[in-house]
Amino acid sequence: MKLGVLISGRGSNLQAIAAAIACGALPAEIALVLSNRPQAPGLEWARQQGLAICALPSAGREREDYDREAVARLRGAGVELVCLAGYMRLLSGYFVAAFPHRILNIHPSLLPAFPGLDAQQQALDYGVKFSGCTVHFVDDTLDGGPILLQAVVPVLDGDDAAALGARILEQEHRLYPAAIRLVARGAFRLQGRRVLGTNGG
């Protein structure tokens, strides 16, 4: 399965996906790495790995206009599954419709709890005892699509957002390749909002 990985920052989940492919754990290839921020460190990392990259600045552009160009670049690369990996930009309805049930996102909380930005701090402020991360299909709501996989991380008494975020990130790097593998193998089915057949990852 050809992947399009969208990033805005350092691309640590991109690196985890690439590592899973390299060791044979993930039957996929990264066809394109696209970033809305040309200076994103993850874009330079991808270039150094010999991956196809696309720097497509989003500043000052209307969302759908930008997304139409992004979709064209992804389709041009033969992308079959879009993976948002720290992509700090909301997708338009046009983008979502272009890849139905073929866009994944990873979020640092146990959705539906704490969507949006600063999820780790939201969890600490609320006083939950467990947080974690979620891989979900993207729809036209904020962090609201059907949930594919989740991993639980305990919240420790001494945690701040950075410490909790670091432990969650370790689980993200494990969970995202596992979720992509499920989709690549067709090892799931949708029943309303429920994604079935994913137990065990």
Task: Itemize the secondary structure elements and their pairings.
Blueprint (H helix, E strand, L loop, with lengths): L1 E6 L4 H11 L6 E7 L5 H8 L4 E3 L7 H14 L4 E4 L8 H6 L4 E5 L11 H8 L3 E8 L9 E8 L6 H24 L4 E3 L2 E3 L5
Helix pairs in contact: 1-6
Walk me through this protein's architecture:
This protein is an alpha/beta fold and about 200 residues long. It has one domain (about 1-185): Rossmann fold (3-Layer(aba) Sandwich). It has helices at about 10-20, 40-50, 65-75, 95-100, 120-125, 160-185; strands at about 1-5, 30-35, 55, 80-85, 105, 130-135, 145-155, 190, 195. Strands 3-2-1-4-5-6-7 form a seven-stranded mixed beta sheet, sandwiched between helices. Helix 1 (about 10-20) crosses helix 6 (about 160-185).
Distance between the termini: 18 Å
CATH class: Alpha Beta
Helical content class: 25-40%
Looking at the overall shape, the CATH architecture is 3-Layer(aba) Sandwich
Strand runs, count: 9
How many domains make up the coordinates?
1
| Full CATH superfamily name | Formyl transferase, N-terminal domain
The pLDDT mean sits at 96
Q: Which H/E pattern describes the elements?
A: EHEHEHEHEHEEHEE
Largest sheet: 7 strands, mixed
Q: Can you tell me the residue ranges where pLDDT is under 50 for at least 5 consecutive residues?
A: none
Specify the overall morphology.
Answer: globular
Which structural class do the helices and strands define? alpha/beta
Structure in a nutshell:
By secondary structure, the protein is of the alpha/beta class. The chain is 35% helix and 23% strand.
